């Protein structure tokens, strides 16, 4: 009886962040061919071939303001400044943007989610650019805006592998009001490369061999 009560309590417990993920119809063929978009206050995944609803992801009391498809997943920015990633079966990660209430209602979310390639997502806000690894939401780097300047999320264009981002300033030439980014951060001569790929466990036999060899 105690186990049954614990199970019931677990089901009654509110989901974190108000998540409500409802799976739709899943066919055996083309199971991963779907497209996501914001609809009716939720993120909805549809079969790309038939238009059939595959899944629906909502958050209690909130709505998505921007949805970005990413390698079989959907990254969404919500009206409270939360960024989420879902594959239609589970919500993979959540990240909260600081100070979102100060700028997001007026800005509307346009251009905030920017893919940089190599599995890196840039979240552009007026005060900073924050980069996350899409595989697990791991924070990779942060680029703050210059003092007296502010990034414009909607003011960005792609040039090859680079993202050119507007950073209007009152006391700078126009060349200082553009920032070039890629998956490693700001593009600059002599920068130190970052390891953005998820870490892989070291094979046990290598560690064992090192231990047997001993110090030299």
Topology of helices and strands:
Layout: H1 2-12, E1 19-23, E2 34-39, E3 42-47, E4 53-59, E5 64-70, E6 73-78, E7 82-86, E8 91-96, H2 100-107, E9 113-117, E10 120-124, E11 128-133, E12 139-144, E13 156-159, E14 162-166, E15 178-182, E16 185-186, H3 204-213
Antiparallel strand pairs: 1-4, 2-3, 3-4, 5-6, 6-7, 7-8, 9-10, 10-11, 11-12, 13-14, 14-15, 15-16
Which consecutive residue ranges, at least 5 long each, have pLDDT under 50? 3-13, 205-216
The overall pLDDT average reads 83
Apparent shape: globular
Radius of gyration: 21 Å
CATH first level of the largest domain: Mainly Beta
Trace the largest sheet across and list its strands: 1-4-3-2
Number of strands: 16
Give the CATH topology of the largest domain. Thrombin, subunit H
Q: What is the string of SSEs from the N terminus onward?
A: HEEEEEEEEHEEEEEEEEH
Distance, first to last CA: 62 Å
């Amino acid at each position: 009886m105690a186990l049954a009560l614990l199970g019931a309590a677990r089901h009654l417990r509110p989901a974190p962040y108000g998540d409500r993920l409802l799976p739709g119809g899943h066919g055996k063929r083309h199971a991963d061919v779907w497209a996501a978009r914001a609809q009716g206050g939720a993120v909805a995944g549809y079969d790309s071939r038939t238009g059939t609803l595959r899944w629906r992801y909502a958050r209690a009391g909130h709505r998505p303001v921007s949805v970005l498809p990413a390698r079989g997943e959907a990254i969404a920015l919500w009206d409270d400044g939360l960024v989420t990633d879902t594959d239609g079966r589970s919500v993979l990660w959540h990240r909260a943007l600081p100070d979102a209430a100060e700028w997001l209602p007026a800005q509307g979310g346009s251009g905030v989610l920017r893919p940089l390639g190599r599995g890196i997502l840039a979240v552009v806000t007026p005060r900073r650019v924050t980069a996350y690894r899409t595989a697990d939401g791991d924070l990779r780097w942060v680029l703050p805006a210059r003092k007296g300047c502010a990034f414009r999320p909607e003011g960005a264009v792609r040039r090859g592998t680079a993202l050119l981002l507007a950073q209007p300033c009152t006391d700078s030439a126009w060349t200082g009001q553009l920032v070039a980014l890629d998956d490693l951060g700001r593009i600059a001569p002599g920068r130190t490369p970052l390891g953005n790929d998820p870490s892989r466990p070291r094979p046990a036999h290598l560690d064992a061999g090192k231990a047997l060899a001993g110090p030299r």
